[in-house]
Amino acid sequence: MNKKPNFDGMSVDELWQLHEELSQVLSVRLTSEKRELEKRLAQLRREKEMRQTESADPQRAPRERRKYPRVFPKYRNPEEPSETWSGRGKQPRWLTAALKTGHKIEEFVIGKPEGSGESPRRRRA
């Protein structure tokens, strides 16, 4: 590599000419690098498409999500009957507070839900 040019000793016109030459060289190099990267990207896309068409097996297609039966509420807040809990997930605040005050969970059990002819656990396919 050449030694560092003395910019302090150059005139403004010489510096401007050097700037234009550098800009031109940089433009050519950046354009060629960009072309190479675009070629590589196009090649990678083609390879990806080929892999996808090869693996497009109808047996491996994602299945639809299984439909789960409706879960009926098992516990009801006697102070606010619209507040119910199915027994799944985190206990609601009203039930947690009631259990802390000495109540038992059996006190909040709801009778058999209306409209269900059979137990939801009975059916198993």
From TrEMBL:
Subcellular location: Cytoplasm, Nucleoid
Keywords, sorted A to Z: Cytoplasm, DNA-binding
Main location: cytoplasm
Chain segments annotated as transmembrane: none
InterPro entries, A to Z: H-NS_C_dom, H-NS_C_dom_sf
Molecular function terms, GO-annotated: bent DNA binding; DNA-binding transcription repressor activity; minor groove of adenine-thymine-rich DNA binding; transcription cis-regulatory region binding
Region feature (Disordered): 44-92, 106-125
Composition-biased stretches (Basic and acidic residues): 44-54
Domain of life: Bacteria
GO cellular component: cytosol; nucleoid; protein-DNA complex
UniProt domain DNA-binding protein H-NS-like C-terminal: residue ranges: 60-110
UniProt similarity note: Belongs to the histone-like protein H-NS family.
Stored PANTHER family: DNA-BINDING PROTEIN STPA, PTHR38097
Name of the molecule in the record: Histidinol phosphate phosphatase
Organism of provenance: Bradyrhizobium icense
